[in-house]
Design brief:
Blueprint (H helix, E strand, L loop, with lengths): L2 E8 L7 E7 L6 E10 L2 H7 L9 E2 L4 E8 L11 E4 L9 H4 L17 E2 L6 E2 L9 E5 L3 E3 L6 H4 L5 H12 L7 E5 L3 H12 L4 E6 L2 H9 L4 E4 L5 H8 L7 E4 L4 H10 L5 E4 L13 H6 L3 E4 L7 H13 L9 E5 L4 H9 L5 E5 L27
Parallel strand pairs: 4-8, 11-12, 11-14, 12-13, 14-15, 15-16, 17-18
Antiparallel strand pairs: 1-2, 1-4, 2-7, 3-5, 3-9, 3-18, 5-6, 6-10
Helix pairs in contact: 4-5, 7-8
The protein binds zinc ion (2 copies).
EC number: 1.2.1.66
Protein name: Formaldehyde dehydrogenase MscR, NAD/mycothiol-dependent / S-nitrosomycothiol reductase MscR
Pfam families: ADH_N (PF08240), ADH_zinc_N (PF00107)
Amino acid sequence: MPQTVKAVVAMSKGAPVELVDIVVPDPGPYEVIVAIETCGVCHTDLHYREGGINDEFPFLLGHEATGRVETIGTSVTKVQPGDRVVLAWRAPCGTCRACARGRHHLCFDSRHQGSPMTLTDGTPLSPALGLGAFAEKTIVGEGACVKVDDRADPAAVGLLGCGVMAGWGAAVNTAPVQQGDTVAVLGCGGVGDAAIAGALYAGARQVIAVDLDDRKLEWARGFGATHTLNAGSGDVVQALKDLTGGFGPDVVIDAVGRPETYQQAFEARDLAGTVVLVGVPNPDMRLDLPLIEYFGRGGALKSSWYGDCLPSRDFPLLVDLFLQGRLALDAFVSERIGLDGVEEAFHKMERGEVLRSVVVNGGSTSGASTSGGDTTVTADGATGTGR
Ligand SMILES: [Zn+2]
Ligand SMILES: [Zn+2]
């Protein structure tokens, strides 16, 4: 039987999101119904709302989620009802030209749900990044479900579904940071802070956090940055060279994604150094760099999509690190809200007041307590400046 549940939908470009009833169909053979437990509020949700992704309104937002498997399709083998899963927006197909060469982390054809979710009048919804998890329940393709350890706080581990994985993976998978490297991270929101944590895990001997906001630099220090640099205090490129013996960092990770920061990253890195772009630029941005510098400096200029992660490999690993106290995933959770708090969370994100607001189902922004039983805002928060 199709089910009617509450969900957060962006009806039209720029309009505040609405909490409405949607219809979730029965699962097809390779589909899974997931009862959503938590879902982080990401910049990409806001981009959808603002029409920055495409015009396929109405969008069912939310893509950084954990839940319990409720029902599985007849051909599903990866998960069972009751499993705790983190949802991944990369669900490798296994057959595209990337997957065929063993490069599943580059899959060009992620397998999402085929059965449409709709408004109660039958209007089909476009689920954000193929997931649509600001909802009590959603339907996803089997490949989007990554089973993880039951003991971990779902609000924390759900952040692996997007922003934390993107930042961590930019450092660990894309760069990849090597033991003894010096690293700078431009932009210390959720993605940047995760990159700082990843760089340290990979063995960086120095991690320099750069941001315009002293509050974010303080949070970056909490994630282990060895040095901080306020980008408004002078020449960032020179300062990064000064902090690294006059040479520049081996790896510079741009978690902002603007031409200005990219140029700083390009110019600050050491000869033969690496730049990793993980912040998402706007479509109208352009870059003007001298080609001879591009050639003469050598090294590598890389982009990091979703931290080049393989969710089935990386999510369980990072949950283990969290449970062992080696990755402070919970420090990314600034506040726990209800489904009715998403619009306000967008504004907090824009004002740079939070690292991640996390929807906990059963909770309410206006109510006293979430089902997580904890509405405390931690000291560790910053706005996510990347995806
Ligand atoms: Zn594929
Ligand atoms: Zn995201």
